[in-house]
């Protein structure tokens, strides 16, 4: 990929012109100085040559030879001759030397001349260099000074004119830099002064087409995800998404909950009397009631399983809470006024069954269907639960959760387990920290099970503060190379007090540590509270901490946040990864997510990879990394627990 030049076009041309002018002036001055020196030296040699001729003639003439000591010193002094010696092979005949001179001996010019009229005699002359006594004067150098001033003024005016002429190119270059920085939306229309104008107009058109293409791609991706996992009429999940989530949940250790099936009676008669549109409106009204009823369960899923049946999945809920929810739901449905010919007291029948880890999905749906049929036989609005033994009934009220969590935080907070994340080449990308707590019996509880209790007692910020503090402690005491990724609640990020606390603690941390700490936020809550959490996310990113969006695909939402907060990674929910080699609809969803991140630096990672067939399909789809038991199991950060885990693994 080509790199962008760091120097602007205008600065390049200005530097080039300035360098050319300065070089021309330098060459001119050097040439002038050499010429002046050459002229001075030639003049001095010519002058001294005439003096030598006079001396030669005087020595050859016997009449003037006797008076040479009278007139020669005055002539030599006037000629700036410091020393003169007339010698022959037999010895020195005459010597002249000035006692006082301002020139150093090393700076004198020495010349030797033979006397043609007196063979065997020669003269050695040491004279003052030409222009040695001259100093700079405005009068003498006025023309040269004026020339330099004119050149400087002309150069200044030329540079200013050049900058004015190239302003359009500089604006166009600045616009290109903003586009490369990912801010094309800020410069959709160029300045009228941009030059060349054809390139500016072409850039405007390309940005408009790119924006339309991205919007169309986003709409298409949303359309794919919606039609793959959402019901067109009610907007709830469809049967495919419900089965995927239920199958994934049944394979998780410690999972429990309930499956509810609601049937709307006399559908065919309703369709004949009210028409397809009227029946659809009634289904939408019932769907709205069900959707509002499950809002207090963050992990619950509502799906339109068949045309006249809705399915509800309650996760990590006890049998007692599920029965209480069923009673409240039937009371809410009883407030509706069904259209004719539905009977007001006999149109809604619901069956319920309970599940735990390891059960078969098909068997559960059969149990829910049998319970629903039992409710139909009662010939009144109501619900019926399938009779089965509930193995794990861990009902916890707010008091029990508050007591358990209070004990956990008093003892130092949750324990942070570790799981590695690798890229497609097998290199370590980072290590994710997973919060775990222990119940009264010492059993480890996953975050998916105790987060409901955290929200119930309002201790989200307490949990997040503890996790952030522990992560910073590990980074400061680590080897200086490990990258840790921690999970944080979107609800905490939208609280002002937590934002201030997080800002202060991050500002006290060196940049080298912050660059190795990543914040993970769940996609669903992030989109729900996006406007409130966005300032905190931007602040965290500005301080040097990369952002990660996890549990992508758990619910079908828009991916507009990718462009806004620019996360480093997006982690796909494990329900999309489980048996993806056997589920084409999940592969289509993953392709859609990869397409949404294609024009951004965001990379897509798969979570919950447990088999080679799953990983091979993900590599073919184009994911950039993976996380799961295939690459490494969850390991405790506690040395004692870690040693026990490794011993069990062996």
Automatic annotation (TrEMBL):
Alphabetical list of Pfam families matching this protein: EAL, GAPES4, GGDEF
Domain EAL: 398-648
Keyword Heme belongs to the record: no
TM region(s), chain numbering: 12-36, 134-157
Occurrences of domain GGDEF (ranges): 255-388
Superkingdom of this protein's organism: Bacteria
Keywords associated with the record: Membrane, Transmembrane, Transmembrane helix
GO MF assignments: cyclic-guanylate-specific phosphodiesterase activity
Coiled coil residues, start to end: none
Matching PANTHER family: CYCLIC DI-GMP PHOSPHODIESTERASE PDEF, RNASE E SPECIFICITY FACTOR CSRD
Entry-linked NCBIfam families: PRK11059.1
Protein name per UniProt: RNase E specificity factor CsrD
Organism (species): Enterovibrio norvegicus FF-454
